Amino acid sequence: xxxxxxxxxxxxxxxxxxxxxxxxxxxxxxxxxxxxxxxxxxxxxxxxxxxxxxxxxxxxxxxxxxxxxxxxxxxxxxxxxxxxxxxxxxxxxxxxxxxxxxxxxxxxxxxxxxxxxxxxxxxxxxxxxxxxxxxxxxxxxxxxxxxxxxxxxxxxxxxxxxxxxxxxxxxxxxxxxxxxxxxxxxxxxxxxxxxxxxxxxxxxxxxxxxxxxxxxxxxxxxxxxxxxxxxxxxxxxxxxxxxxxxxxxxxxxxxxxxxxxxxxxxxxxxxxxxxxxxxxxxxxxxxxxxxxxxxxxxxxxxxxxxxxxxxxxxxxxxxxxxxxxxxxxxxxxxxxxxxxxxxxxxxxxxxxxxxxxxxxxxxxxxxxxxxxxxxxxxxxxxxxxxxxxxxxxxxxxxxxxxxxxxxxxxxxxxxxxxxxxxxxxxxxxxxxxxxxxxxxxxxxxxxxxxxxxxxxxxxxxxxxxxxxxxxxxxxxxxxxxxxxxxxxxxxxxxxxxxxxxxxx
Length: 504
Hints:
- The protein is an alpha/beta fold.
- 32% of the residues lie in helices and 25% in strands.
- The chain contains 17 helices and 22 strands.
- Helix 14 packs parallel to helix 15 (432-447).
- It is globular, with a radius of gyration of 23 Å.
- The termini are far apart.
């Protein structure tokens, strides 16, 4: 099925998110749509999927103009969408989520759960997924939840399939597997629109590339274009793709973690006897495939984990067993791996989110009263400093792109006086321009003498940022190595092997 968008325009008040955008997606081809966060990519796809109504323009399928009043119309026409932010019900099983909105019933009028289970199993077998149809979605790791989203779209036999940042929460291995699946779908005749910020992915699978910036199409690119060329088209300026950092000026030991063990609700050790130290003015990166204890490690440091033993100290003061409030007040800044669930309150404004850590006292609250002028000035200046792009500080966080949401979290945490900065997946799902900005701020934080702990499943990011690398596998530290350790060696360690010459 051929898809054509003609002069699609979508406005939100004074903001024109899409400005006369046109593109054509052909059957059997992968059409990559790239641009900065806030460029209008997701808005355009939401128009295509019937979630928004265009103010101007037309959607055509096989030369026939379509009128979508909602997603149901788009799906009925053969369009499927894998959303950047999951559209799943956590308390439902995988099968229940897949059948939601397309429920089948037995002759007795009961929901045919068995048919939904079989559908999940069939799609999983077809594309190499390993998904338990009876698992509760809320109990699944983030990467597996993303696969459920993909199964939902594939189960509808969509002829046009939209992938909106589908790899934002996937491990490198899962991403490679998804690339294979996308190629299989393309070869079967599906027209695919692929939105991503990761230039390697664009060059790996795209047949056609459209670049949009500030809501307008600024050009078409060839898959043979270099990363530098694509980045410059996306951002509108030269982008530094390599992290610029000098030698670390190391101070005394700051964060000391000794024999840390974290048990899950079943009593299994998800962090098992972990010990490491971060010195002042040093970036230590935790590398590993997601799901090997990194999340639980950061939660233990922040006082969010239960059933924790061992010791965690910062500048000689114990953090273990302290409340989250105490740890934040002790000068620990934290960027959680899931910004929408744990980093922001979507219904709060930008200004309100920027004061979340300091809502109990000066400078924003005095004698129980909000100091609105102080907050307005701070939010305005901080938003400008961190290049948060919005209609103003009264915009709801949920209305912003992923990159701008991430900038709010960073702005809030880095605008405090810190003694330790912990960043989990700091660039997940954001564009190359925002990644450049985030990396610069992390390096600046390190250069100001603050110890930094970064957890990332992106090996390129780990190698670029780290002064030392801690590799974790199944809750244990496989080794602690210098930043110049070859990628092949790091890959072996991430798989649980200890190469010769590496201390376990």
